[in-house]
Amino acid sequence: QVQLVESGGGLVQPGGSLRLSCAASGFNFSHYPMSWVRQAPGKGLEWISGIDSGGGSASYQDFVKGRFAISRDNIKNTADLQMNSLKPEDTAIYYCNIGHVWGPGTQVTVSP
Predict the structure, then answer these.
(1) Which residue among 2, 42, 48, 107 is buried most deeply as judged by most CB within 10 Å?
(2) What span, in angstroms and rounded, lies between the C-alpha atoms of 38 and 5?
(3) How far apart (Å, rounded) are the C-alpha atoms in residues 68 and 86?
(4) In angstroms, rounded to a whole number, what is the distance separating the alpha carbons of residues 10 and 7?
């Protein structure tokens, strides 16, 4: 069964950090680039970061550059998103995505 499952979300104060993880199963994870996408309350899906299949090249939306870092481990079939200096506007459900496969998402809330 092809599956992505996110974890690591939660409530954090502004300026804090969280590390999200995405666990992949049921397919050859190492063959595919992957992305992190988020959806803020009342808004559409927003791509924030991506990484190539080998983990050697990453890209970011401008509004997370310098604050977020994407990585992957093709042995463990996982991908992480380290989020630092979080802001209230980072509040959203965060999804990992590979092609047409999506995880259920993990909620990140940034609030005093």
Answers:
(1) 48
(2) 14
(3) 9
(4) 9
pLDDT value at residue 95: 98
What does each C-alpha distance from 41 to 69, 79, 92, 93 come to in angstroms? Answer: 23, 24, 6, 8
Kind of pairing between the strands at 106-110 and 10-12: parallel
To the nearest 10°, report the CA torsion of 14, 85, 8, 22: 150
Spatial contact of 35 and 96, defined as CB atoms under 8 Å apart: yes
Phi then psi dihedrals of residue 3, to 5 deg: -155, 145
Alpha-carbon separation of residue 98 from 8, 41, 68, 93 (angstroms):
19, 23, 19, 17
Q: What is the pLDDT of residues 4-16, one digit of tens each?
A: 999 999 999 999 9
